[in-house]
Every structure is written in C-alpha cells, then in structure tokens.
Amino acid sequence: MAEIRKGFAPPVEVTGFFDRKTATPAFSWADVWAEEHAYRFTVAKAVELDVLNAFRGTIAQAIAEGKGFDNWKPLIEKELTKLGWWQPRMVADPSGIQPERMVNFSSDRRLKTIFWSNMNSARAAGQWERAQRSKKTLPYVLYLRTTSGDPRPEHLLWVGTILPIDHPFWNTHWPPNGWLCKCQVRMISAREAERLLGTERVYGKDADGNEIRVRYTDQVPDLGPDLEYRNRRTGEVSMVPPGIDPGWQTNPGLARASTLIQNLETKLAVADPGDAVRVLKDLWADPYLKIAPKLPEKVWLPAAHSAPLAAELGAVSPVVSITSETIKERMEKHKMPIDDFALLPEILTEGQIYSDPRGDSSVRAVLMQIGKTWWRSFVTKSINGYLRATSLHQIRDVQAQKMTNEN
After folding, report:
1. pTM
2. Mutual orientation of helices 108-133 and 69-83 as an angle, nearest 10°?
3. Taking the CA of residue 390 as centre, how many other CA atoms within 13 Å lie in the half-sphere pointing to its CB?
4. Which of 42, 92, 108, 109 is the most buried (most CB within 10 A)?
C-alpha cells in the first residue's frame, strides 16, 4: 500500500507535501474539501487536536521510513491507547450540524482508509511535482490500468489515454480518482507516445481468463457533462467529472502549488514583518513552490513583506510579488538556480532601498550583501497599486559601491 522499498529514502516532494500540512480537526472528511486537502491534514471524527496529531505524527513517520499499513498500525495503536482512543467512543459534532456519532479508530477498515488516503495523495503529489520537473524529456502522461480486482468501469475507459502533462485533463484526473482507487500514470517521451498512439496491445488476462486489451489514444472518452455535487457540510457546490468520487476531483500536487500562493498572499498583507519573513522563507523552501515557473499559466508568487517599499512607492499593500515568468526568464536566460530566489524575502525586507539608477520614479532598487555577494532587485508599483519585483541578480563590488556613493 504505497510502501517505499527498504533502502530507498522517500522523495522530498512526498515527505514535504505531507509534513507541511496544517492540522485541522474535523468531524467529517467533507469539512475540509477538495483542494484544501493539499495543505490541511484532517481525519474524520478526530475533533481533538492531540488525537489528530497522533495520526499526523505516525503517518509522517511511516512516509519517511517507507512503512506500509501493517507496520504503521502498531504505531498509531500505541499513541491512541495512551490517549484513551483505542476503543469505540462517542464524538460530538462541534458545528452542531449532525448528532453525536460512534467512532472506532481501532477498526482496520477505518485505519486502512485513513492510511491509504494520506499515503496515496502524498505519493500522487510527489509524482506530479517530479513530472513537472522532467517534462522537457518526458512531456506526456500515460494513464495505466488499475491493479484492483474490481475496477470502476469509467476508470477503465481512461486506460491508454496519452496527453501532455499540462493538458487540463490532468487537473482533475490525476490518480487517485476516488476512495481506494489504484489507478496510476506514467511519464513517457514524445517518441514513445508517437509509437504507442493508435495501437492496441494485450495487457494481460482478467479473472475469467479473457484478454485485457488496451488501445492507446490522445482522445479523452466523453462520459458526459460534469455532475453537480453539493457538500452536505459546507454547502459548497462543486462540479465533478463522471467517474470521480466527489472530493477527489483535484490534482494534489497542482492544488498544493496554487493554494500555497493564494492563502499566503492574503495572510502576508496583515502579518508582522518579522513573522512575514519567516513564513516566506518557509514558503520558498517548499518543493511545490519551486515548480511554479514550470506551470503553463502565469503565477504571482509572494516574495517579500516591506512596509518601507510600500511607503516609498505609495502601494496599497506591503506584500511584494514576483511572476513565475520573471523567474523562468532569469533561470533560462541567465542560468540562475531557483534557490537564488529564496533570498528575495531577506533582500527585499532587510536590504537598502535606493532610487532607480535609470531615473524612473515608480521604481526602487534594493541592494544587499549576503556573504561576499552583492544582490540587487528592482521593485515597481503596478497600475493597481501593488508591489512587483521585476528582477533579481548579482552585481560586482564596484557596481554596489557606485550605487552607495550616488545615493
């Protein structure tokens, strides 16, 4: 069950995805919905934080050590026994929406569901992150047949589908696509995609001895329009593609990358400057932020929190953002590693602010020496009044000295 072979450390994308989730006590799995599962850890009926943290800690250990369910179960049994939760208990709904319910965390069925959903969503997110990094050489994704003995008919129709990694289909159909779904995908080269498309091959035999044939195609089967689903807990209405269980219609890795940015942008605007720098440094250490420049759509990434820059330029917010396009350009044209951009929170918050050497009153230059290296970034105010970092680069000592002397 998503067990990592002994002797192989789990990918940092997998451990990072899980470890950076925020513990969120909830009465129902539906209290934390769809994309929210990419950054919140929850277990249905674990309404007490110490119980939730017991699950989180032991699952994190299982992921880090490559443990399967059978090796994880004694860990969670030990922790829940200490807390008095290794037996059936009544749990009250904090929201009052539903009556008290009996929960038995010692049930194998419940434990397997909890372990499976967390282990497989982390694995899926890690696979998507790695796919984004390797898409220059392996640009296509192949939907593979499930290993389940009782496969969903709709999922079988997707087997053999070959599409580019950035095709919208993968925004919703990146496995797992439902509870206990065992479907998988594989990254393939353009040459392999060309060789497979239009062909049909025998995959194996089913339980009755009949041949299982797979036809490779770049046409997604039409299963009809998306279905409307109303979350009974939150009232939120979602459109779910046919064949996918409600709540699983998201790509964990993509959701992680996008929600990181959306949530932090709002929080940073009212954050204490010291806390903002710490939060931003942690953000840039997240492997899911580092693939933002590889996404097909333009993404604004929060880069710093600077009240002095906001005051200098008359901005509406102290949050400074940088576009994924700017980072991509610096990486490709100037061969800058993305780790250099993790210095932006420190540079733009603690660096010295200067007027633009080119005389543009709507631009400020920020200069800072880190170790023996001088860094300079330019920040401007957008038409809507927001701060935007437009560059980051190293400069020579003589250039830094000239800027200092002229201001």
Report:
1. 0.73
2. 120
3. 12
4. 42
User: Long-range pairs for 127-131 at CB < 8 Å and ≥24 separation?
Assistant: 127/185, 127/253, 128/170, 128/174, 128/251, 128/252, 128/253, 128/254, 129/13, 129/17, 129/253, 129/287, 129/288, 129/291, 130/11, 130/13, 131/165, 131/187
Measured distance CA(221)–CA(157) in Å, rounded: 7
178-194 tens-digit pLDDT: 999 999 999 999 999 99
Kindly give, in sequence order, each residue whose CB lies less than 8 Å from that of residue 363, ignoring residues fewer than 6 positions away: 356, 378, 379, 380, 390
Compare 277 and 334 and report the one with higher pLDDT: 334
CA–CA distances in Å: residue 331 to residues 113, 293, 393: 42, 9, 11
User: Which residue carries 């010291």 as its tokens?
Assistant: 274
Residue 176 φ/ψ, nearest 5 degrees: -80, 145
Mean pLDDT of all residues belonging to the chain: 86
Other C-beta atoms lying within 10 Å of the C-beta of residue 167: 16
Half-sphere exposure of 77 (CA within 13 A, CB side): 10
What is the DSSP code string of 227-289? EEEE-TTT--EEEE-TTS-TT--S-HHHHHHHHHHHHHHHHHTTS-HHHHHHHHHHHHH-TTT
First to last CA, the chain: 62
Using CA atoms, how far apart are residues 97 and 380, in angstroms rounded to an integer? 49
Q: What residue spans of 32-146 are helical by DSSP H?
A: 49-65, 69-83, 108-133
Report the C-alpha gap between 330 and 250 in whole angstroms. Answer: 31
Q: Using omega within 30 degrees of 0 as the cis cutoff, is the peptide bond preceding 176 cis?
A: yes
Cα within 13 Å of Cα(276), Cβ side? 24
Domain ranges, ordered by start, for the chain: 1-131, 134-223, 269-406
